[in-house]
Design a protein that fits this description.
637 residues; alpha/beta; 6-stranded mixed β-sheet; elongated; binds adenosine-5'-diphosphate
């Protein structure tokens, strides 16, 4: 295993970096953000308000001519006034000429006899003087114009909506449409050659490609293809890539959708999307439908009242659709999930997803092949040893390896070089796992010394136990992840099994850091937090899952709940047994700690010498470490 004793702050984080889901770059065009209807209504309201407050009074104002009081008196004298209105609140008099064609206004003065004089002049006292002045204009401004604006806007909006309904992104009319992305085969499409380290999965999918090329060969004999193939495995192992490779090789349309895209706000929409997707697929058959993260809709339906109606309806529709077409119709459904145990049994039963293809983390050979595939795009110096890098990156997924290669290229650019080297790759493994080096570390000399002893403690205990893998590198340069130092161990080959002794040795190695601190500094620090966690987890697994305890024997006391996502476990035993497990776990770790102490006590001089060397150099290789260790042994002989 790619084991790190990352000290002083737990670095579970590294796994999170590893397992972060790659964001798929979608091949369809960028969508314009949709504007809700309310947006258009808002604009109409605003326009109407502006019109009422500004335009109408402006129209009115424009018709009225302002004159002085003298002119008004003159017109009264000459009996030239048609209608008149005294607007006391606005302190003005509005009046028209005899023919009622022009409107005038003037300011009011303290003129007590004016009403009588107006009356005598034959003027009419009117309420709505403007209306009388220009009834046609008035009608136009207050009735016709708003109507025209409304109708115009209505036309514009309905046209917009209808246009959208025809296009792929309709807001209202497209709610039940699948909007699946269709990948059309292109010359640079993904092929099986691009996906490495998953040979078994590839073989299984090759048959599907063959079927899509020659369906008759299968029909003749009466064989039918599985309707659905479920790709399961940890994140970043190439499930999506494999599905795309099937489409690339088979040269058929490829509908891709993520499980979560089916789930809408409205109940029933997801189901309608499923219907639409299958309808499109049947029209385009032979073709491939790929549903990524199918657990988003395919979760087990539980008996709880008030479950997720939308999700269940979508799942039901999917089940119905899968039953609805014949095995030989040419539509193959691929789905990917990293939580297969959470899928509804109805979905995984034969006749639906009949074939389950595990896509596991790559082994040593696979890792090397993946590194080589990704390195093709990058200029590397000739002496790069990919096998060595693959050994160092044990436990890494395809996505992580791709990231490591890219980080190496970035590092080369940063250094102003034209090609990347082995050192770039090795450094980028550490960057991907532990973060960048912290240049301005604020560690005191004492802290540095503690870290050096701690790391040498791990390495020494590991080296002294025959079954432990050799130490690759020890460093006390702090990393941005919070690790103040670490010891990297590298396995020489693939390891599929671990014996009880190997696990015990491993736990002892974990406790070696703390033991060294105790021996050299005489006190303990917070630095062992991550070691303690790892050691406890291993010891617990020995008892509850691996049947390695004398007391319980081969009884499963814990079950793994999500195998591919961190491997969380759930206890399945009585409280009494749980208490006994705790005691046993404690015993195992204590014994390992004592063993580590003993090893270090026996080699206390080497511990001091190596720690001093590490403190001076900050980073030492496994070879330098072994040289010092063996030199002493040779001298002693
Ligand atoms: P998954 O769907 O399993 O989470 P992806 O197929 O999306 O993972 O892989 C993400 C990226 O990781 C890919 O684009 C590719 O660059 C890289 N990758 C993952 N697995 C492999 C592999 N087996 N061979 C080559 N590249 C891989």
């Amino acid at each position: 295993m790619f084991r790190f004793s990352l000290d002083f702050i737990a670095i579970i984080l590294a796994k999170n970096i590893f397992y972060e889901k790659e964001i798929e770059i979608k091949m369809n065009e960028v969508k314009q953000p949709k504007k809700p209807l309310v947006y258009y209504y808002g604009i109409v309201m605003l326009l109407m308000m502006l019109f009422n407050f500004l335009a109408v009074p402006w129209f009115m104002q424009r018709q009225v001519k302002e004159v002085d009081y003298g002119t008004f008196m003159e017109m009264v004298e000459n009996k030239e006034i048609g209608s008149v209105q005294i607007q006391e609140d606005q302190n003005q008099i509005v009046f028209t000429d005899k023919e009622n064609t022009k409107v005038y206004k003037t300011g009011m003065l303290n003129d007590p006899g004016i009403v009588e004089r107006l009356y005598n002049s034959g003027a009419k006292f009117s309420g709505e003087i403007i209306e009388q002045a220009s009834p046609f204009l008035n009608l136009l401004v207050t009735w016709v114009l708003p109507l025209v604006i409304f109708i115009g806007l209505g036309q514009f909006m309905s046209k917009k909506i209808m246009n959208k309904a025809g296009g792929p992104n309709s807001m209202m009319f497209n709610m039940g449409k699948s909007n699946a992305k269709i990948y059309v085969k292109s010359s640079d499409g993904i092929k099986f050659d691009d996906v490495e380290g998953v040979d078994e999965a590839e073989e299984s999918l090759q048959e599907i490609v063959d079927y899509l090329h020659n369906p008759d060969k299968y029909r003749e004999i009466g064989a039918s293809m599985p309707k659905g193939v479920l790709l399961v495995g940890p994140p970043g192992t190439g499930k999506t890539m494999l599905a795309k490779a099937v489409a690339g090789e088979a040269n058929v349309p490829f509908f891709s959708m993520s499980g979560s895209e089916f789930v809408e706000m409205f109940v029933g929409m997801g189901a309608s999307k499923v219907r639409d997707l299958f309808k499109q697929a049947k029209e385009k058959a032979p073709c491939i439908i790929f549903i990524d993260e199918i657990d988003a809709i395919g979760k087990k339906r539980d008996g709880n009242i008030g479950g997720n109606d939308e999700r269940e309806q979508t799942l039901n529709q999917l089940l119905t659709e899968m039953d609805g077409f014949e095995g030989n119709s040419g539509v193959i459904i691929l789905a990917a999930s990293n939580r297969p145990e959470s899928l509804d049994p109805a979905l995984t039963r034969p006749g639906r997803f009949d074939r389950r293809v595990p896509v596991e983390l790559p082994d040593l050979k696979g890792r090397e092949a993946i590194l080589r595939v990704h390195a093709k795009k990058i200029k590397f110096s000739d002496d790069v040893d990919f096998a060595q890098v693959a050994r160092m990156a044990s436990g890494a997924s395809g996505a992580e390896l791709a990231n490591i290669v890219n980080e190496a290229a970035l590092r080369a650019v940063r250094d102003g070089r034209k090609f990347a080297t082995q050192a770039d790759l090795e450094e980028s493994i550490e960057v991907v796992i532990a973060g960048y080096q912290k240049k301005n570390s604020l560690l005191t000399d004492k802290e540095k010394m503690i870290v050096a002893y701690h790391e040498i403690g791990h390495a020494l205990v590991a080296a002294m136990q025959t079954n432990s893998a050799p130490v690759q590198k020890i460093t006390i340069v702090p990393r941005t992840s919070g690790a103040l130092g670490y010891t990297m161990q590298v396995d020489e080959g693939n390891h599929y099994l671990m014996s009880k002794e190997e696990i015990e040795n491993k736990i002892a190695t974990y406790t070696g850091g703390r033991a060294a601190e105790q021996l050299a500094v005489g006190s303990v620090s917070t630095g062992a937090a991550n070691d303690i966690e790892q050691a406890t987890r291993l010891a617990r697994a020995m008892i509850t899952r691996y049947g390695m305890s004398d007391e319980f024997g081969m009884v499963a006391l814990e079950t793994v709940t999500n195998q591919y996502l961190g491997g969380d476990t759930a206890l399945s035993c009585s409280a009494d047994t749980a208490a006994k497990i705790d005691v046993e776990v404690n015993d195992i770790v204590k014994k390992a700690h004592m063993k580590a102490m003993q090893i270090l006590k026996d080699n206390i001089e080497k511990l001091h010498e190596l720690a001093a060397f590490l403190l001076e150099k900050e980073t030492i290789t496994g070879e330098e470490f072994m040289d010092i260790l063996n030199k002493d042994t040779a001298d002693n002989l």
